Every structure is written in structure tokens, then in C-alpha cells.
Amino acid sequence: MSRRYVHTCVRVRDPEASVRFNGALGFEPRGRLNFSSAYNLYLGLPGDGDVLELTVNRGHDEPYDLGTGYNHMAITVEDIHAVLADLEPLGVQPEKPPYHPGDREELPLIAFVADPDGYRIELIDGGAFPTPQDPED
Q1: CATH fold of 8-59+70-125, please?
Q2: Radius of gyration over alpha carbons of the chain, in Å?
Q3: Which residues are catalytic?
Q4: pTM for the full predicted model
Q5: 51 near 8, Cβ under 8 Å?
Q6: Per-residue pLDDT of the chain (137 residues; tens, 9 = 90+)
């Protein structure tokens, strides 16, 4: 049986704000699936599948507890400074200015931003990011 990654799901309180935020990251709305107590909005990057599912639970007005297990989702961007400029009108600022992780210049610049519900998103500059590997000790 072949397998493939399908999507990441996050629960959101303000779907319009979440769609605006993710649109500034390049995600396109792809569709909606309705249920009696919730609905899902599906988004994807150009040329990719519907990899982001935003779940809106009807009547849930309180912030979600993000827990301690979630850390971030990561996406590559062509120009990290341009993306941060697109997010600025939405009131989104990076946790700190773009930097090379671990001060390793051979790695691309990264920056972390939070979506309207507080989920962290890692932006990776340069459009491609093969997962770097160090030799094991």
C-alpha cells in the first residue's frame, strides 16, 4: 500500500483572519467541508495538494490550548523579507529578525511567526530546504 502525507489540521477561532494570514504565506483556499458542529477549510500552496485543514468548531469562542507538544509547521519561501513585509499589515511580527539557525551560515535564514490562533510557523528562506543532517556522534 502506498502512503503519502495528506494534511495538517489546526483548530481556529476566526476563519477569516486565518485565511488572510495563510494567504499572505501563499496558501490558496481550496474548499470547505461542512459538519453539524464544525466545518473544515482546506488550503494548499500552488502546485501542492490541500495540505492545510483549518477546523472551525461552531460556538467555540475561547482560545484553544495549544499544549506543550506542538512546536511549529514549516514552509519554504522565495524571499523571507518579502513574506514578512506581506504579514506586517496583518499585525504579524517575527519572534526575532531572520537568522541562520544555530549561527550556522551554511543554513538558510529562518524566522518564526504566529498565526491568529498562536500556532507557530517557521519560514525558511530560499524556496528549498533539504533537511540538513549532521553525522551522529
Answers
A1: 2,3-Dihydroxybiphenyl 1,2-Dioxygenase; domain 1 (3.10.180)
A2: 16
A3: 122
A4: 0.85
A5: yes
A6: 777 878 999 999 999 999 999 999 999 999 999 999 999 999 999 999 999 999 999 999 999 998 888 889 999 999 999 999 999 999 999 999 999 988 888 889 999 999 999 999 999 998 766 677 777 76
